[in-house]
Amino acid sequence: MSRVPSPAKAAIREEIEKKLTTLTDEEKKRQSDIVFNKLINHPYYKSAKRISIFMSTPTEVDTAPIIKHIKSKGGEVFVPQYAGGVMKMLRLETGDEEKMPVTRHGIQQHAKHMAREDALEKGLDLIIAPGVAFSKSGGRVGHGGGYYDKYITNLRSNPETAPKILAVAFKCQVLDEVPMDELDQRIDEVLFAED
Known about the structure:
Its cofactor is Mg(2+). The chain is an alpha/beta fold. 30% of the residues lie in helices and 20% in strands. It has helices at residues 7-21, 25-40, 43-47, 64-72, 96-99, 147-156; strands at 50-53, 76-83, 86-91, 126-129, 133-135, 140-141, 164-169, 174-175, 189-192. Strands 3-2-1-4-7-9 form a six-stranded mixed sheet. It is globular, with a radius of gyration of 16 Å.
């Protein structure tokens, strides 16, 4: 089943993109720090050992401190690699961040030749998901590729081992409602800096 572009989602992506460009670096750092503190104190995070997280771009909550924290608590970090229309979560090993190339979409990921453990081999406890917009009730609008929805659908096919899913966002990314279709996967909670 392929995705039909949604005009409602396209409009939300455009609206949020405009809002994100108005955030100063100081404001992004302030909100990222609040989100970081909420996350590291969250029960899902505290009990998780195997965690997938994205390598943030300048318009996203800064995930570098989170990655550092996961490693410092003895956890295993897995980050997305997009290749041939498929997303994998590959283990982040010491020094990888310095060697990983940046894609044409501005996302840092493992190069194809870098052999790393695939998270699906032993599963995940927690996914920290990116997105463009979220609702407090667990709605999520991604960037339009459907990668996370497909990945989460696959993991949720076995409810006993399905991970919890948290999203991290700037306040302007959280709306009352977001459009969802039958392929969209809900998240468990969105963490953001509230006023």
